[in-house]
Design a protein that fits this description.
Strand order of the largest sheet: 1-2-4-3
Mean pLDDT: 97
Bound molecules: flavin mononucleotide
CATH architecture: 3-Layer(aba) Sandwich
Low-confidence stretches: none
Number of strands: 4
Distance between the termini: 33 Å
Length: 177
Amino acid sequence: MNLENLFLKRQSTREYGAKPVSDKDLLEICRLAKLAPSAINSQPYRLYAVNGAKAKEFAKNVQLMGSNKWASDCPAFIVIEQGKPPILERLGQKITKTEFVPIDIGILAAYITLAAENMGIQTCILGMRDEKGIAEFLGLATETKFPLVIAVGYAAEGYPVREKTRKPFADTVKLIK
Ligand SMILES: Cc1cc2nc3c(=O)[nH]c(=O)nc-3n(C[C@H](O)[C@H](O)[C@H](O)COP(=O)(O)O)c2cc1C
């Protein structure tokens, strides 16, 4: 798909149809997303592709305080586990006073959503999640960080592609020459 069309078509989808996502496609999205850049190529994350009956069980972990009710009908999720940056990156973070790991994870999330949309599969990035619940679900230590979860599935029939609402170009972009 043409890149601009892909950017326009990718949207936060909050109503999914019954069609399941195959394990193969879910893993292919992860494979493509792993091509994302990261600070010193540290790739400080791990992905968990949750599908089928397990996804139904998982949904409650992205419904913190009554949010994301629609996620109950979402057929799959990709969970991003935050890893520890290597020593060189920690040094860079200290010098620049910048946390690169969340930036890396944001870029990864963007790659996931665009890779999926290019395969005709819709997504929604989810920040409203219960990290303790996710850790328990995955059998990992309680303090493990899961900064983002991505809902993955096929949009319900007739779900409209919304027009993008973005701040005016002139307010956000300045050409310096
Ligand atoms: C870090 C982050 C967290 C988000 N968390 C949620 C969420 O918990 N639930 C939800 O429905 N949308 C969530 N969104 C989706 C945004 O609301 C959405 O990207 C934004 O409104 C722009 O709309 P679009 O994605 O359709 O272009 C999140 C997006 C980002 C980048």
